[in-house]
């Protein structure tokens, strides 16, 4: 392999084969880096992170007391999704995390 | 002899407590200095004087603020934690029927990501409040002011994070459940 490489390299094509190989490797590496950075900034990566977070969140033991086996119908899911809003309706983010106490007037300066 | 032994015992009890307290104060000052340098926080001479005069009284309010924040955070962790469990249970039930429930997996993951940074923010909040209550604010009014300013920023992030959690639930019918319901109806 090395002999073939040297033979081709020694023939005068006006361009060194060694440089061509390096350039090809460089271009490939930059394409890999480019596609990886595009992936990291894409929605696909967010999805992967979400799935990974979901799989590490709950163990089966945490679901004790929850029905995890009975068949589910569309109407059950429909009712559940309609009632889901009520669970968070009582949470007043504005009031709970307001910083009125911390403003400069309240602190006296 | 008995007096000497009593003295040694008292010193052994008091010295570590005093040392810990000094370490806490040093850590608090270090933490607030870092915050102050990173935010380039500045106060006029007049404002510094006002901080000095009022900060000691505000320390009690800060402790109360941390207690109420802890309560608000706990309430959310319970509510969203329960929702995550319900979603997981639903996902398992759908999967047993051989249907795809990846939307639920995504929703659980999204909630987990938001909850995780929410917990982190609460930890930061708690650390800053602890530093503010430990530091001698009359000697270091600028650091105290910078800490309060940081607390304001953290609370703003907590509110935004909490709103995102709520939005994730409010939009879940459209984004998660309707596609699932359609799939089950096929």
Your description of this structure?
The complex is a heterodimer of chains A (109) and B (186). Chain A has helices spanning 2-10, 17-40, 43-57, 74-89, 93-96, 104-107. Chain A is mainly alpha-helical and 109 residues long. The mean pLDDT of chain A is 80. By secondary structure, chain B is mainly α. Chain B has helices at residues 2-39, 45-96, 102-134, 141-170, 172-185. In chain B, α1 packs across α3 and α3 (102-134) runs antiparallel to α4. The longest helix of chain B has 52 residues, at 45-96. The relative contact order of chain B is 0.14. The mean pLDDT of chain B is 87. Classes of the chains: A mainly alpha (109), B mainly alpha (186).
Major beta sheet summary of chain A: none
Helix content of chain B: over 70%
Q: What is the percentage of strand-forming residues of chain A?
A: under 5%
Terminal CA distance of chain B: 90 Å
Mean of all residue-level pLDDT scores of chain A:
80
Whole-angstrom Rg of chain A: 31 Å
Largest interface: A-B, 45 and 62 residues
Outline of chain B, from the CA principal axes? elongated
**Overall pLDDT confidence of chain B:** 87
- Helix tally of chain A equals 6
Q: Please provide the ordered H/E string of secondary-structure elements of chain A.
A: HHHHHH
Rg over alpha carbons of chain B: 24 Å
Please indicate the percent range of residues of chain B in DSSP E strands (runs of 2 or more): under 5%
Secondary structure category of chain A: mainly alpha
Q: Output the structural class of chain B.
A: mainly alpha
Q: Which runs of chain B of at least 5 residues are low in confidence (pLDDT < 50)?
A: none
